Structures are given as C-alpha cells and as structure tokens.
Amino acid sequence: MDFIINYNNALSKDFYLQDTELVAKQLIGKVLVREKEGIILCGEIVETEAYLPFDDAANHSARGKTQRNAPMHESGGILYVYKIYGVHHCVNVVTESEGLGSAVLIRALRPLAGIEFMQSQRSNKKLIELCNGPGKLAQAFSFTKDDNYTKITEPVLFIQSYNDYSENRIISTTRIGINVAVDLNLRYYLMDSEYVSRRKK
C-alpha cells in the first residue's frame, strides 16, 4: 500500500461546508480513515452521490426536518447514517450550512488497510466485493446509526487527501435506487475503478 495515514492531511470542516455537488465530486480519490477496535481501516472513495438542500425530491430532508434526518440539518462535517430495507446502513457526510439538510452518500470504496477486519465483518474474502456498495462499506467499516452526529474531522475518523484525478476520469450519472428526481446527474464515480458499485449504462 502506497497510502500513508496522516491526520495532518485530513480535510478540514471548511471542506464540508462547500456546495454539496462539489463535495461529492471532490471526495473521489480521497481516503476514509477510521480506527475501530484498535484497528485502522482505510478505503479510497471511488463513488458518491449528492443529495441537495433545494429542489431534490430524493433528499431525505425534502419534506423538512424529522427525527430520522436530523443529523443532515447540522453544520457540515458530521456523519448521517440511516438504515434501508431494515438491514443495510448507509453512510453520509453532512454538507453545507446548519439547517439546510444536505449530504453526500459514500457509495463505494477501494479497501486499502484493515482488510482482514473488513472481511470478518462482511464474511467475504473477495477484496473487490468488500466495499463496492453503500451497505457493504458500512458493514465493512462497522458503521451503524450509533455513529450519527460523529465528527469526521477527528483522529479516529477523518477523510484524507490522496489522489487528485483529472476531470475526465470522474463520471457523472443519475443516482441509483431512487424513484424520484431520477433525472439529476448527482452520482460520481472513478471511471476505471473495478470497485464501483455499478457501471454507467
């Protein structure tokens, strides 16, 4: 692994206060770092989806603040974790200013470190399948709803700079698994990554 963990290279809170679409795009190539049970887990972010504060019916906050989506209404730089189908957790990074209700879903990672731990969490030995989907990566990194409101700017949980990919290597498409606002190109992924959850059709 050529990646070196360095909290000094962690993204600051100001990064997450930017426009949600910009954050979603710029997270491609960054590395999610988490310490869990004394083990360092790392994965390069290769796929994201933006959920906008305005004119986005697919956003959980589209109809206002609820107990479920309350973390989204905090100031950017914390986690919003929710459960889908009563089984899988999804990890989001809250963006922009307090009260807006926006976030970026982390959809897929390329595992870099802590792989044995991830495999034990997922009961899966195939590297390519450990984190190639939002529910998979949440399970591999042991994220649950208990992680709601957690700051993503701390030594035990942060996102660090790593690869800066050229514009033409980051693909923008419509989002996956929604039935409203289906025409918005708010999903971003690394063009040649085999760790992406789904390819452009």
Account of the 3D structure:
The longest helix is centred in the middle third of the chain and has 8 residues, at 115-122. The protein has one domain (7-190): Methylpurine-DNA glycosylase (MPG) (3-methyladenine DNA Glycosylase, Chain A, Roll), CATH 3.10.300.10. Strands 1, 2, 3, 4, 5, 6, 7, 8 and 9 form a nine-stranded antiparallel beta sheet that branches. It is 13% helix and 29% strand. With 201 residues, it is of the alpha+beta class. A hairpin with a 3-residue loop joins strand 3 (79-84) and strand 4.
How does the SSE layout of this entry go?
Layout: H1 13-16, H2 20-26, E1 31-36, E2 39-51, E3 79-84, E4 88-95, E5 102-113, H3 115-122, H4 134-140, E6 153-154, E7 157-160, E8 170-173, E9 187-190
Antiparallel strand pairs: 1-2, 1-7, 2-5, 2-9, 3-4, 4-5, 6-7, 8-9
Q: What is the general shape?
A: globular
Number of domains: 1
- CATH H-level superfamily: Methylpurine-DNA glycosylase (MPG)
Mean pLDDT over all positions: 95
The class by helix and strand makeup works out as alpha+beta
Hey, roughly how much beta strand do the residues contain?
A: 25-35%
For the termini, the CA-CA separation is: 32 Å
Question: What is the ordering of alpha helices and beta strands?
Answer: HHEEEEEHHEEEE
Number of helices, counting only DSSP H or I runs of 4 residues or more: 4
Helix content: 10-25%
> What is the count of β-strands?
9
CATH-scheme architecture: Roll
Q: How would you characterize the largest beta sheet?
A: 9 strands, antiparallel
CATH topology: 3-methyladenine DNA Glycosylase, Chain A
Low-confidence stretches: none
The value of Rg in angstroms is 15 Å
CATH class: Alpha Beta
